[in-house]
Amino acid sequence: MLEATLQAMAMHPERKRSLDGMALGLQTRNKKRKLSQSPVFGTSAAAQTQLAKQRAQLERQKNQARQWEEARMEREREDRRRRQEELEEQQNSRRGDGGNALHQIIEKVFKKYWDMSFENLGGMNPFRIVIDRESAPHIAPDYFTVITTPMNLTYIKDKVKGRKYTTLTQFFTDIDLMIDNALKYNVGEANQYRIAAIDLQKMHKKIVKVLWKQINEKQSQQSKAF
Q1: Which of 51, 52, 139, 171 is the 20 to 30 Å CA partner of 157?
Q2: CA-to-CA distance for 118 and 12, rounded, in angstroms?
Q3: How far is CA 162 from CA 99, 100, 108, 156, in A?
Q4: Which residues contact 35 (CB under 8 A, 6 or more apart)?
């Protein structure tokens, strides 16, 4: 019987190759099954989970470090602003008529901002517009989801008239806030209000530079006179 079987297999090589292929396939499946049940493969999912946790923790640490750095920079800016205000107050007190002189300067400078017009908006000045809780739903419904501290030239005008500014830095800080709000809320390069805000920012920087130069030159002349 065995001899007959061997002879039959020898006489049918195609059948023999088929049987060999089936045997090889069974061996391969058995190896894969054993590997999948091995301790190494059993812990791969846990290892991946642990790696994902480590990456998430690293990302949280990076975000926290970034927040700390931003907070530090904000504190430094606030310290510089406060020192500048203190210096201005000292200079005003030494001049004697500091209050009136400062108010006259601020009034004159404020008029430059109030009288500005923007060609891309038909000559209007959008920075005079008041956006508050009452008007926002009608003109900018999502305004207070983006902006936390609104500022505009009308608010600034009231503070100028009420002599609320005791230093130039306080006045310029409100102008900066107004511009920052406009840039933050009006996104997109083609946004006409954003274009106006960028133009205002450029003019604002020039005004600040020229004014501080004039003040420093005047103080220098007064020092030489004494």
Answers
A1: 139
A2: 95
A3: 12, 13, 15, 10
A4: 41
Angle between helices 153-161 and 168-185 (to 10 degrees): 170
Q: What is the mean pLDDT of residues 143-148?
A: 96
Q: Give the CATH number of domain 98-221; options: 3.40.1190.20, 1.10.10.10, 1.20.920.10, 1.10.260.40.
A: 1.20.920.10
The per-residue pLDDT for 221 is 76
Distance CA 64, CA 66 (A): 5
Q: What are 34's two structure tokens? A: 């054993």
106, 159 contact by CB (below 8 A)? no
Residue 41 has pLDDT above 50, yes or no: no
Q: How far is CA 138 from CA 85, 86, 121, 179, 191, in A?
A: 38, 41, 20, 22, 19
**Helix, coil or strand: residue 124:** strand
- Report pLDDT digits (tens) over 174-190: 999 999 999 999 999 99
Give CA–CA dist 130/154, Å, rounded: 7
Between CA 135 and CA 144 the distance in angstroms is 11
Quick one: tokens of 43? 């812990």
User: How much is the pTM?
Assistant: 0.58
Residue 79 tokens, joined: 């310290």
Size of the chain in residues: 226
